[in-house]
Amino acid sequence: MDAGSIVHIDYDLYDAGNEKLIETTREDVAKEHEIHDEQRNYEPMIAIVGDGRLIAGFEAHLETAEASTDYEFDIEPEDAYGVRDQNNIETIGQNVLMRSVRDPSTLAIGAPVEIGGRTGVLQFLSAGRARIDYNHPLAGVALRYNYNIVKVIEDREERVSTLLNMNTGRDDFEVEFDGDDLTVTVPEEMAYDQNWAYAKFSLVRSLRENLGAQTVIFREVHAPRVVDEEE
User: Fold this and answer.
1) What is the CATH number of domain 1-82+138-154?
2) End-to-end CA, the chain
3) pTM > 0.85
4) Which CATH number fits domain 155-231: 3.40.50.720, 3.90.330.10, 3.10.560.10, 3.30.70.2210?
5) What are residue 130's DSSP bridge partners?
6) In what order do the strands lie in the sheet with 174-178?
7) What digits encode the pLDDT tens for the residues 193-220?
8) Rounded to an integer, what distance in angstroms lies between the CA atom of residue 26 and that of residue 10?
9) Is 2.40.10 the CATH number for 86-133?
10) pLDDT tens profile 155-194
11) Distance (Å, rounded) from C-alpha 215 to C-alpha 207?
12) Which residues pair with 149 in a beta bridge?
């Protein structure tokens, strides 16, 4: 699969050591393994091949993958979420922990906590001391992926719309190419979104690197306000 390809991937992720299902995009698999979430919408993951957002081992495998083909392979911790590092486990005073959390009643062994801007897992709490593990929850775990590239987005405008959706969660942009120049009509509400100003810079870079766009214009349209007349 070429770098920059935008693909839809169905996958099942297992702990290779105990074959326990960790994550899946397929509802039937979630039900089979009794981890089904009624609140979740099960659908393929959208990814850009080679953009570095996936773990290294998966990125490398995608580079040689083909669409509509089933794959199963293992990834060692070094190419997944890293090995467990004892330096990422800290012991702090219970008073520091209590000052750091908004609602102390939510504290529980195994639950996530945020201390000084870092998120970890509370491992131990007793005798005025607390131990926090800042390793990734899957650090030290060998992973097994079953996956299939179910769709490769070829249409240029659809690729732009997909990138916009990946970065904003919205699907109501209007997209138009003039040669390699691109105009994106932005939903009016986005003008009031503080995150949009920062998202644009990342989007422009991605549009140029992955789609060959040259001039990129973000167009805002503010329609006149319609006031209902009282009868």
Assistant:
1) 3.10.50.40
2) 62
3) no
4) 3.30.70.2210
5) 92, 125
6) 174-178, 181-186, 216-220
7) 888 888 888 899 989 988 899 999 999 9
8) 7
9) yes
10) 999 999 999 998 888 899 999 999 999 999 999 888 888 8
11) 10
12) 9
